[in-house]
Amino acid sequence: MNTIFVSDQFWAPVLLSLQVSIAATIISFLLGVVAAWRMSSASFPGKSLLETLFLLPLVLPPSIIGLILLVLLGHHSWIGQAVETLFHISFIFHPLGAIVAAAVVSFPLVYQTLKAGFQSVDKDFKEAARTQGANEWQVLKFILLPLSFRSLQAAFILGFARALGEFGATMMVAGNIPGRTQTIPTAIYFAVDAGNLPLAWALACSTILLSFLLLSLSTRLKRD
After folding, report:
1. Where is the ABC transmembrane type-1 domain (predicted)?
2. pTM, to two decimals
3. Rounded to an integer, what distance in angstroms lies between the CA atom of residue 56 and that of residue 111?
4. Structural domains in the chain (count)
């Protein structure tokens, strides 16, 4: 068992999962800040429909999300063709595909947490800033973000934890190429399929421990 923790079979998916999760969380966090900021204060026709679209990855099966991403980012889509032409890379069977998949599934949690944080800020602070001549970007930068800092931290942690555990959509878009696109969840699946239970348990326990620590930290931040 000890040899597993020093083998590439263990560390390659762990390191790749960390890299993918960090990149995906940064993307979903930045998009979530903008979306939550606008949705927490704006009122416009179709707002409920748009918010439902934002939250849809929470309830859709990962296989459906993966299928949608394949259609949107695959070799026959204009996005996929543009990326291949400009950067000579493909989303399919590439770590970039895993990042996009993880960002999509983590976005709803990030968005919900950020929106709740922004809505908890007293409206009087925002109105006072506006009466002093602050524009909306300045209100976001100097009022909303500092006063909802705990929610920002919790959103990032929850997004990272969700991205770390993503399996279905990642499997369909990025596949399972050891050392290239094999993340912890896909490595566990194929380790079990191959009868390598010690490796599967080692990967599972490391993920459980990390997720437990992240969720504990998130709960503490929300409570403080």
Report:
1. 14-218
2. 0.89
3. 12
4. 1
